[in-house]
Design goal:
The protein is built from four helices and six strands; from the N terminus they run ββαββββααα. Helix content is 32%, strand content 30%. It is globular, with a radius of gyration of 18 Å.
Length: 193
């Protein structure tokens, strides 16, 4: 795929393919960006930042829903990740727009989700939630996905970036299983102390 120019909204998160992300938009430049994307049915990019440094990776999203508009123009939105990308060039201002843009290239990705691995992830999440005295997760069903739990299972930004670089869903499932096992082991040891 050739490079394409898209508006950018740098954030300190990794957003994964087909994940839904909730954002509160309050800065003027990003209110402008989101309104323009909604009006023109455009994608926008979230390049990952770590320690205030822009990394050359990110996710392209579309606004699925504006859940709330505030009197000052702020808004709560839900976005869906369409694909992930490598950031080829960051442009602080483009054509007089108040937000940054960038030339991106779509990353290769295989969406080979495995149901057996999902069942294992669900079991490990249930065990982790029980150990941490969090509310129980819903019983397993065929629609279960690990996606809503990635950012809720103490995976730090370095772990998210490492997982982000894996080019298939199955590899990400295996990575997440290993992370959950380590979390359970740590919590179990802490409780023994």
């Amino acid at each position: 795929m050739s490079a394409q120019l898209i508006p950018l909204f740098p954030l300190g998160i990794c957003a994964f393919e087909y994940e839904d992300i909730r954002l509160h938009i309050f800065e003027e430049r990003y209110k402008f960006l989101i309104n323009e994307c909604v009006e023109n049915n455009m994608v926008f990019g979230i390049p990952v930042t770590k320690n205030k440094t822009l990394l050359p990776i990110g996710s392209a999203l579309v606004v699925s829903e504006i859940t709330k508009r505030y009197p000052g123009g702020e808004m709560d939105i839900v976005c869906r990740v369409q694909f992930t990308f490598d950031l080829e060039e960051f442009i602080p201002e483009t054509n007089g727009k108040p937000y940054a843009s960038g030339w991106i290239k779509k990353r290769n990705y295989t969406g080979n989700e495995d149901n057996e691995l999902n069942l294992r992830i669900h079991d490990l999440l249930s065990e982790l939630y029980e150990l941490s005295e969090a509310p129980k997760i819903a019983p397993y069903d065929k629609n279960f996905s690990m996606m809503p739990y990635i950012h809720k299972a103490a995976l730090d930004i370095d772990g998210e970036i490492e997982m982000f670089h894996l080019a298939s869903f199955q590899h990400r499932q295996l990575y997440f299983i290993n992370h959950l096992k380590n979390m359970i082991k740590t919590l179990t040891e802490l409780q023994k102390m």
